[in-house]
TrEMBL record:
Organism field: Limimaricola litoreus
Subcellular location: Cell membrane
Entry keywords, A to Z: Cell membrane, Membrane, Transmembrane, Transmembrane helix
Membrane topology qualifier: Multi-pass membrane protein
Superkingdom of the source species: Bacteria
UniProt cross-references to Pfam families, sorted A to Z: BPD_transp_2
Name of the protein described by the UniProt record: ABC transporter permease
InterPro entries: ABC_transp_permease (IPR001851)
Amino acid sequence: MNDPLSQRLWFLFGLLLAAGLAGALLSPHFLQTSTVGYLLQYVPVLGVLGMAQTLVMLSGGPGIDLSIGATMSLVGLAIAAMFGLGVPLLLACALGLGIGGLLGAVNAVLVCVLRIPSLMATLATFFTYSGLALALTGGSALGGFPDWFGVLAQGRFLGVPIHMWTVFVPLAIVLHVLLSRTRIGSHIYAAGNDERAAFLSGVKVWRLRFALYCLSGVIAGLAAIMTLSWFQAARPDAGEGMELLSVTIAVLGGAHIFGGIGRISGTVLAVLIVTTMQVALQLANISQAWQLAAIGLLLVGSVVADNAVGDRLRARLRRAS
């Protein structure tokens, strides 16, 4: 219990219980069984984007990917366009993941090669990708997907959406193992904690961050596929607002904004908290403006808590070294 990160996880668990209690008080429909399935419908898309944001932040820099929602929208439109041209849907999805990686590589070049601060670089690509999505479609959605494709996000197994079992949970496990049990994970933490020391110890910081921006694009492609399956259509605004929600989830989950601190388990708890809040406010018929205000307050509180935990942990790391 003396570990600040463990304390953060207990804090998040308590916050999740508080969000659930608030939901029950705000709406009598919140505790219905159907609400759980409705809530979990949102978790995989937001969750994978939050995990991608966590990886980018952990590697330091400081790193952030504000284009992740626009990347998701553009990849979804690319998959729909390829399918409309006769490309088999599964192949179009695979190619979409590659397109996501290429869009992430654009961010990587801007940040890692041209040395543009990640905030400015990914904000620029956010506007570029969003503009392309609107310009190429005129703001219209692209549909025509087969019914079987909807099973991924609309189907249920044991009352839980299938994309929870097939995408969100496996990705969370893989990334947890990557960060906690592999050399790559230790390199990510090392680069985030002290870039110069990591470089002198043999970590290829430049390559590592480049790869993580590419991976962020691929994961945004996964989110696009789940969204396509859910809505059975590609919308140019599908990822609108997702970038800020992914940042909120990553920071609330314990990812330090300057890198080196954070866990995937914290990100998982954070996405459950955010989606619980959103669903509770929607069921209570609270306006979208107040919902955004609540998310904003949550982000401010998470940054304050993040700074407190980060300062304590960094001080402990300095004493240990």
